[in-house]
Amino acid sequence: MDLPAWAWALTMVGLASVVVFDLVMAVRNPHKLSTKESATWAGIYVSAALLFGVLIFITEGPTFGGEFYAGYLTELALSVDNLFVFLLIIQAFRVPDKLQSRVLLVGIVLSIILRGGFIAVGSVLIERFSWVFLIFGAILIWTAWGQLRDNGGHDEDMPQNGFMRFAESRLRVAPDYDGGKLTTRIDGIKYVTPLLLAMLAIGSTDILFALDSIPAIFGLTQEPYLVFTATIFALMGLRQLYFLLAALLKSLKYLSLGLAAILGWIGVKLVLHGLHENQLPFINGGEHIDSIPEIPTALSLGVIAGVLTAVIVTNHILLHREGKTWRQLFAEAEEEQHVPVAAEK
């Protein structure tokens, strides 16, 4: 893709405007989104991504259009899986209902910034060093194996990382929330509130998420424009999807197994591409291995769509056998999403 500077600028301004709008809405009207409101906004964001893909199809052709859709679906599936971690963090920090939206949005903005940096670095590395494909492929295959080894399950405890352990050991944390403040004073001593720690926890876990998502998207397209837009579109509706799916995540079976299949497939695709473009002197004398086939984007898109469809259909069948419907689960979501907190000041 050889896009003019104005196309990049227009895209950046458009996506930034949506993020700013979402940020302003979350700050001005902090509240727990209802299922109807969440579904409406999530539908708007998904529709916008689908229409953008149509625009790519029309202006750049079916190859790039297919790459965008494959990347978007993969990033969206990974984002839904990441929502489970967000749910654990919000529950662990007992974030008040009206502040959950703000915590999520801050985490998403940080994620956009971090992944934007990873995309820039990844683009430079891939352009100069073809062996990076082999490393990215190995990361995805290892991640897929980890998903299978854990049987696609999730740890019910809040995930900890070194950054959060360091932060909790160095910061003086207040026992209660103080409205939407990040810091407060108790007996003249300054404390950080649990709200700040919740934001830091979600922001720091975004770094770990990027280790899966960025190699995955580069395995489907090496066009920086498509990598960036597919990633951002998948993140833009994450706040609304959280409130829509929060109570369903624990009932959603086999998503992680489906992701394992997708990541494993993309990992193999990356390794094959890396060998096809080989420049390593100890492999085939540093020459390209033309006999190794390349996996076409259309096939990858079909595999990704097929796996995600299988996950949805399987969950529908399991719900039917239990005598439940999706509508019942969404109704239960309205009742179960409340997180009890200590009295606010």
Record the SSE blueprint.
Blueprint: H1 5-28, H2 35-60, H3 62-92, H4 97-128, H5 132-149, H6 162-170, E1 183-186, E2 189-192, H7 194-218, H8 224-236, H9 238-245, H10 255-276, H11 297-321, H12 326-336
Antiparallel strand pairs: 1-2
Jot down its keywords.
345 residues; mainly alpha; globular
Strand order of the largest sheet: 1-2
What class, by secondary structure content?
mainly alpha
Question: What is Rg?
Answer: 21 Å
The largest β sheet comes out as: 2 strands, antiparallel
Helical stretch tally: 12
Considering DSSP H and I runs of 4 or more, what fraction of the residues is helical?
A: over 70%
Please tell me the overall pLDDT. Answer: 79
The low-pLDDT segments are 338-345
Order of helices and strands, N to C?
HHHHHHEEHHHHHH
- By DSSP, the count of extended strands is 2
How would you describe the shape? globular
**Strand portion, in percent?**
under 5%
| Terminal-residue CA separation | 54 Å
Describe the structure.
This protein is mainly alpha-helical and 345 residues long. Helices cover 71% and strands 2% of the residues. The chain contains twelve helices and two strands, in the order H-H-H-H-H-H-E-E-H-H-H-H-H-H. A two-stranded antiparallel sheet has the order 1-2. The chain starts with a helix and ends in a 9-residue tail after the last helix.
